[in-house]
Amino acid sequence: MLCSSNSSSSTFTCFASLPKLTMDGYNRDGDLKPMDAEQFREHAHKMVDFIADYYKTIENFPVLSQVQPGYLHNMLPDSAPNHPESLDDIFNDVQAKILPGVTHWQSPNYFAYYPSNSSIAGFLGEMLSAGLNIVGFSWITSPAATELEMIVLDWLAKLLKLPDEFLSAGQGGGVIQGTASEAVLVVLLAARDKVLRRLGKNALEKIVVYASDQTHSALQKACQIAGIHPENCRLLKTESSTNYALSPDILCEAIAHDVAIGLVPFFLCATVGTTSSTAVDPLLALGKIAKSNGMWFHVDAAYAGSACICPEYRQYIDGVEEADSFNMNAHKWFLTNFDCSALWVKDRTALVQSLSTNPEFLKNKVSFF
Ligand SMILES: Cc1ncc(COP(=O)(O)O)c(C=O)c1O
């Protein structure tokens, strides 16, 4: 047996009985060489066994790591080892030193923050991705990466029944971001630059962002990075009578007040599934207000968006038709490894204008915009 567990003490013991591997960075002649394909095959099998056994026994661990801050410092040497170590030794270290410091997000008993569960299919995809190690910063660096990303995001947009403008066949399309925080940042930058192209750069002090006080703090951080004046990020008060959703009336009042004092409303972020209470903002009404005030309307469905592929939950993103951009986190609730946040825009021009560079080494025969 490769793995035994003791549920009373939550221990997890794998590979203790395995013979010492000979394939520890030295080849069979004792020379220090990178692993070859056969060594990889052997080690990878053991790694898969280790992971499979971890999942079989995951409920034996306390979900929340019990270690104290700085625990690992005392357990590891001050500098990196000079010589390679065997995989057995590494597994022993992982069991003794790393697993105690892991909070087990994948445990079925994990209920903090939000779900962030992957799946075995997700692990296999990650393994392939690690093995191919594609660097996909332009089409030519791996055409399959760019094209697969576009195709799969079109599929996902169709599953979510997003309006056709979000599909890549027209002016819009989807792109994978690391996190929802990045997604909101890039659309905020696009919207900022779009409004500043119209008003001139000096208007930066005057442009205003709106969202509810339940909105994820990623928006505030994005405002800081984008140079939005700290007083111009309006997190409008919500209350229990609206289930903590943003009230269209309160938004209208705030916009009217800001316009009256010479400020320029330019960005509204609504949320479908707020982090603390899964509140759902009324997209249709908010979107119409944004449109009538010439604002960019972003819908952050990072948390709850995955559910909306189910016909019975699609209603929660009704009104997304009004949005300029929409994101959901595949890494939250879509059985996909962290990190993978899907972002769609209806018109990629502003995004491309705001964030593109065009050095010689990035030029290639395909342009998607
Ligand atoms: C509604 C919402 N928006 C944004 C985020 C930020 O997500 P990420 O960790 O992918 O940046 C979260 C994460 O909790 C969220 O729940």
Task: Please give a quick description of this structure.
By secondary structure, this protein is α/β, with parallel strands linked by helices. The protein has helices at residues 37-56, 87-98, 120-132, 143-159, 180-199, 218-226, 248-260, 283-292, 330-333, 349-355, and strands spanning 3-6, 11-14, 173-177, 207-212, 233-236, 264-271, 296-300, 325-329, 341-345.
Detailed description of the structure:
By secondary structure, the chain is an alpha/beta fold. It has 2 domains: 99 residues, dopa decarboxylase, N-terminal domain (Up-down Bundle), CATH 1.20.1340.10; 231 residues, Aspartate Aminotransferase, domain 2 (3-Layer(aba) Sandwich). Strands 3-9-8-7-6-4-5 form a 7-stranded mixed β-sheet, sandwiched between helices. It has a two-stranded antiparallel ribbon with strand order 1-2. The relative contact order is 0.11. Bound molecules: pyridoxal-5'-phosphate (PLP). Pyridoxal-5'-phosphate binds next to helix 5.
How do the helices and strands line up, and which of them pair or pack?
Layout: E1 3-6, E2 11-14, H1 37-56, H2 87-98, H3 120-132, H4 143-159, E3 173-177, H5 180-199, E4 207-212, H6 218-226, E5 233-236, H7 248-260, E6 264-271, H8 283-292, E7 296-300, E8 325-329, H9 330-333, E9 341-345, H10 349-355
Parallel strand pairs: 4-5, 4-6, 6-7, 7-8
Antiparallel strand pairs: 1-2, 3-9, 8-9
